[in-house]
Design brief:
The complex is a heterodimer of chains A (109) and B (115). With 109 residues, chain A is an all-beta fold. In chain A, 0% of the residues lie in helices and 44% in strands. Chain A has no helices and eleven strands. Chain A is globular. With 115 residues, chain B is mainly beta. Chain B has one domain (5-114): Immunoglobulins (Immunoglobulin-like, Sandwich). Chain B has no helices and eleven strands. The chains are: A mainly beta (109), B mainly beta (115).
Chain lengths: 109, 115
């Protein structure tokens, strides 16, 4: 069964501190993974995709197949990074997105 | 480009009443999705359309939920009759429907409260 686990409901850091949002998955196959973000009063939007290997707003995520993880990292957090972050995987075939429960990141000045 | 549109944005009803939500996807997007997001949880897929055909409705409670996408564009999701546990945000998303992975774009959601 496909499952995405985000163990932290809330992560609180100070501005300038490094950030790591954890994501673990279970999937019987080769997954494609995503991070979605929802800022206050805004819609859910794509932050980055594993397949693109890109850095968006200073965030990066590396797929570790051995540990089945896709943690989201940023070396220096900014106040505007405060938001709800969801890790998700997509299955081949119907391309069904399976989301984790989300982690709220709070960056304090 | 205009994003995914949904209406209404908020709805309050009493249990056993009926409710309908509307979604207009991004122009040209063949695939449309309805998700249910209960407070404290991630979005859960209810139903997925490819053009006007259903490709996945395995998690749709079909005794009370129904959805249609006539003409392969707009879609409506209906709940009849509503239960207290249906209180959630209902999200609509759309994607081009080509390639893998196919990026999904989300609407603002409809927040449903069942009293």
């Amino acid at each position: 069964a496909q499952r995405v686990t985000q163990p932290e409901k809330l992560l609180s850091v100070f501005k300038g501190a490094p950030v790591e949002l954890k994501c673990n998955y279970s999937y019987s196959g080769s997954p494609e993974l995503f991070w979605y973000v929802q800022y206050s009063r805004q819609r859910l939007q794509l932050l980055l995709r594993h397949i693109s290997r890109e850095s968006i707003k200073g965030f990066t995520a590396d797929l570790n197949k051995g540990e089945t993880s896709f943690h989201l990292k940023k070396p220096f957090a900014q106040e505007e990074d405060s938001a709800m972050y969801y890790c998700a995987l997509i299955s081949r075939g119907f391309q069904k997105l399976v989301f984790g429960t989300g982690t709220r990141l709070l960056v304090s000045p | 480009e205009a994003g995914v549109a949904q209406s209404p944005r908020y709805k309050i009803i009493e249990k056993r009443q009926s409710v309908a939500f509307w979604c207009n996807p991004i122009s040209g997007h063949a695939t449309l999705y309805w998700y249910q997001q209960i407070l404290g949880q991630g979005p859960k897929l209810l139903i997925q359309f490819q053009n006007n055909g259903v490709v996945d409705d395995s998690q749709l409670p079909k005794d009370r939920f129904s959805a249609e996408r006539l003409k392969g564009v707009d879609s409506t999701l209906k709940i009849q009759p509503a239960k207290l546990e249906d209180s959630a945000v209902y999200l609509c998303a759309s994607s081009l429907g080509t390639g893998f992975p196919d990026t999904q774009y989300f609407g603002p959601g409809t927040r449903l409260t069942v009293l």
